[in-house]
Automatic annotation (TrEMBL), chain A:
It is found in: Mitochondrion inner membrane. Belongs to the complex I LYR family. This is NADH dehydrogenase [ubiquinone] 1 alpha subcomplex subunit 6. Keywords: Electron transport, Membrane, Mitochondrion, Mitochondrion inner membrane, Respiratory chain, Transport. One of its GO terms (cellular component) is respiratory chain complex I. The lineage of its organism: Eukaryota, Viridiplantae, Streptophyta, Embryophyta, Tracheophyta.
UniProtKB/TrEMBL annotation, chain B:
Its main location: plastid. It comes from the Eukaryota. This is Acyl carrier protein. It holds the Pfam family PP-binding. It is found in: Plastid, Chloroplast. Keywords: Chloroplast, Fatty acid biosynthesis, Fatty acid metabolism, Lipid biosynthesis, Lipid metabolism, Phosphopantetheine, Phosphoprotein, Plastid, Transit peptide. It comes from Oryza sativa subsp. japonica (Rice). InterPro entries: ACP (IPR003231), ACP-like_sf (IPR036736), ACP_chloroplastic (IPR044813), PP-bd_ACP (IPR009081), Ppantetheine_attach_site (IPR006162). GO terms for molecular function: acyl carrier activity. Residues 62-137 form the Carrier domain.
Length: 131, 148
């Protein structure tokens, strides 16, 4: 039921880049304020600190620093909100959260930089033979 | 005449007459001190001397600024030997807009306050952050709201 209610409320598109930027900061604030409850839900006190989680979230947002199209930013924000909602509503399990946001920085998740200029061939080449 | 003056002075100050019946010089000096103390007390609304109050005020402010500097160093990955001034702007230290928001969130967590968006946007220097934190802490800012 909560999922259905949440899916209906899609915010309108940003009218300008400045508005999209504003929404990014609002999303970041909302995510940071949810960190204490996330750590309580998934019992993360012994594997991570709130400061480290906050840095991880900031890093994820900074990956898309070069995006200037408001429509793309809105789409990314929607995905971010969905991910945050999934985490706060127990739609993930502990090892998912740990694997993506705690251990992921140390090589578990391939942290491929978003290179806009490369061709598909080069991107696959850099990714190497992993599935 | 002298006795009458002493009586008038003691009555005005609310002291018992026996205490004010010393020598004229002593009485005069004593009355001046009493007047000065009364004026200072009435003016400041506190029964404390100037020096301790000022020191306490300074210590609280310096403590807050020190904590803010420590958090800023940690968030921006500056070395411990980096010297920060209270007037340093976050942008001068290499912070972008997301870094500034992150610093504000770190301060919220550290001091147990909630910074409104308008206030958060006006924070550009360490002194601004310390002033706002002191105001919010003194005003009993609420705890961060739980996630829905």
């Amino acid at each position: 039921m909560a999922f259905t209610m949440r899916a209906v409320k899609v915010p309108p598109n940003s009218a300008s880049l400045e508005e999209a930027r504003h929404r990014v900061f609002d999303f970041f604030r909302q995510a940071c304020r949810a960190i204490p409850s996330i750590m309580e839900i998934y019992n993360l006190d012994d594997v991570v600190t709130p400061s480290q989680l906050r840095s991880t979230i900031a890093k994820e947002i900074r990956k898309n620093q070069g995006v200037t199209n408001p429509k793309v930013i809105d789409m990314l924000l929607f995905k971010g909100m969905e991910e945050l909602g999934n985490i706060t509503e127990h739609a993930k399990q502990r090892h998912h959260v740990i694997g993506q946001y705690v251990v992921g920085q140390k090589g578990l998740v391939q942290d491929m930089e978003k290179d806009q200029g490369s061709s598909d061939f080069l991107k696959k080449f850099y990714t190497s033979n992993y599935s | 005449m002298a006795a009458a003056l002493s009586a008038v002075v003691s009555a005005k100050l609310g002291c018992p007459p026996a205490a004010a019946l010393g020598s004229w010089k002593g009485s005069r000096i004593s009355s001046r001190n009493l007047v000065s103390m009364k004026t200072m007390t009435a003016r400041r609304g506190l029964v404390s001397l100037r020096s301790p109050r000022f020191r306490v005020f300074c210590a609280a402010k310096a403590e807050t600024v020190g904590k803010v500097m420590q958090i800023v160093k940690q968030q921006l990955a500056l070395g411990e030997e980096a010297k920060l001034a209270p007037e340093s702007q976050f942008t001068e230290l290499g912070a972008d807009s997301l870094d500034t928001v992150e610093i504000v969130m770190a301060l919220e967590e550290e001091f147990g306050i909630t910074v409104e968006e308008d206030n958060a946007q006006s924070i550009t220097t360490i002194q601004d952050a310390a002033d706002l934190i002191d105001k919010l802490v003194a005003g009993g800012g609420g705890k961060p709201p739980a996630a829905a």
